[in-house]
Specification:
four-stranded antiparallel beta sheet
Length: about 350
C-alpha cells in the first residue's frame, strides 16, 4: 500500500506540472557527426558547456575519449577529441570508460583555469556482471575558460599529464549505508550506477541512476577539496523522492539549485536475485524534470514530463541553454539516437 501511495503521489505531481514543459518546436542538427564510429555516436551520454560560452564537451559510454563541440545557433559542431584513459595501467588492460557524466566547473579565482569533471559509471558490466576497472574512475582536467579547451597539447592517442584520475570513489560508495546493499551489483539487480555529476558551491554532486528504493533516487555530496587525494573522500547521501523506478539521469546546475532529469532506473525487468524490493521495480516512467535547491532539508519539485518523449526513449543529458526569471531553455540528448538526437524544451519555473 505504501508503494501505491507513493506512486499515485508521484504521478499526480508530474501530471499537474505537465503544462509547464513544452517543446520549443525548433529542430537541431549535428554537423559534422560525432567521432569515431556509429557505436560512439549512438552512445552520447553527457554534455556540458563552459558557462556563458558556446564551448562544450561531450562524453560517450563506449570509448576512452571525450569530444569538444561548439553550439552554433541550433547546430552542434563537434571538434577535437581528447584521450582520457590509456590502454593499460600498471599492466592491467583498460576498456571503455563507460563515461556517464560531465560537468564544467568555473575558475575559483580570476586568471585560474576552469575544470571539466568526467565520471565513469562505477558499476558492473551490464551483461556479464563483472568488475571492469576502467569504469571506476573520476577524471578532472583544466581548460582555458575563454576557449573551453586545454592550453596544453592534447590528442586522441595519448593522455596528457594534466588529466587527473582517481578510482577512490569506489571506496566512498561502499561506505554509504543507504545504498550499501546495492554496491557492485548488476544494473538489473538494482546495482549502483553513477549517472551524472555537477558542482554546486564547493561540493561535487553525484547522481545515481540506480538504485531506486521506495520511490527514492540518491545523490552523493562530496567536498571538491577532498577529491584527487590519497584517501577516499567522505560523502553524504541524500534520498530524493522522485517516484518508484525513477533514477537520476542528469543534473544541471542552475541559479539557486539544480535541475534533475529523471527517468527509468533499470533498462530491463529486474532480476529476482537483487536486494529486497528490487524484483518489484518494473515501472517504466516517462523522462521528466525536477528542480531541487540542493539543500538536504528541501524536497525536489516536479516541473513536468518531457512532451513527445516516451518511456522507451533514453533521455541521457540535460544541457542548460538559457535561464530567465520565468523559464529554463534546455537541450536534451538521447542514448541510442544518432549523435544524441538533440531536442529543445522550455521548462517553466
Amino acid at each position: 500500500m505504501r508503494g501505491l501511495v507513493v506512486l499515485i503521489a508521484g504521478l499526480v505531481a508530474v501530471s499537474a506540472a505537465l503544462a509547464e514543459v513544452t517543446s520549443s518546436g525548433h529542430a537541431w542538427k549535428v554537423d559534422p557527426e560525432f567521432e569515431k564510429d556509429k557505436d560512439a555516436r549512438r552512445a552520447i551520454s553527457g554534455a556540458a558547456c563552459v558557462s556563458g560560452t558556446p564551448h562544450c564537451l561531450a562524453v560517450n559510454d563506449e570509448k576512452k575519449y571525450a569530444q569538444f563541440f561548439e553550439i552554433d545557433g541550433r547546430r552542434l559542431r563537434p571538434g577535437r577529441l581528447i584521450r582520457l584513459l590509456p590502454d593499460e595501467i600498471n599492466g592491467v588492460e583498460m576498456k571503455e570508460i563507460d563515461a556517464e557524466g560531465v560537468h564544467y566547473a568555473t575558475p575559483a579565482t580570476a586568471g585560474a583555469p576552469g575544470f571539466y569533471y568526467v565520471t565513469g559509471s562505477h558499476g558492473l558490466t551490464r551483461k556479464a556482471g563483472t568488475y571492469s576497472p576502467s569504469a571506476f574512475f573520476l577524471f578532472r582536467f583544466p581548460v582555458d575558460p575563454a576557449t573551453g579547451q586545454p592550453s596544453y597539447p592534447f590528442n586522441d592517442d595519448t593522455v596528457a599529464p594534466q588529466i587527473q584520475r582517481t578510482s577512490l570513489l569506489r571506496d566512498t560508495l561502499r561506505k554509504q549505508a543507504e545504498i550499501s546493499l546495492h554496491v557492485e551489483r548488476q544494473l538489473n539487480q538494482c546495482g549502483v550506477t553513477v549517472e551524472r555529476l555537477t558542482v554546486l558551491g564547493t561540493n561535487l554532486l553525484l547522481g545515481l541512476r540506480a538504485p531506486s528504493v521506495d520511490g527514492n533516487a540518491f545523490v552523493l555530496r562530496i567536498a571538491l577539496t577532498d577529491l584527487f587525494k590519497d584517501s577516499a573522500p567522505q560523502a553524504t547521501t541524500k534520498a530524493l523522492a522522485l517516484g518508484p523506478g525513477i533514477g537520476v539521469r542528469d543534473l544541471a546546475a542552475v541559479s539557486n539549485g539544480v535541475l534533475i532529469l529523471g527517468g527509468r532506473s533499470l533498462d530491463s525487468d529486474p532480476a529476482a536475485e537483487g536486494p529486497p524490493g528490487c524484483a518489484t521495480q518494473t515501472m517504466k516512467p516517462r523522462p521528466a524534470v525536477w528542480f531541487w535547491s540542493g539543500r538536504d532539508a528541501d524536497a525536489p519539485k516536479a516541473l513536468g514530463a518531457l512532451p513527445g518523449v516516451d518511456a522507451a526513449m533514453k533521455a541521457e543529458s540535460l544541457l542548460l541553454l538559457e535561464e530567465t526569471t520565468s523559464h529554463y531553455r534546455v537541450l536534451v540528448l538521447f542514448d541510442g539516437a544518432e549523435s544524441g538526437g538533440p531536442m529543445e524544451f522550455i521548462i517553466g519555473k
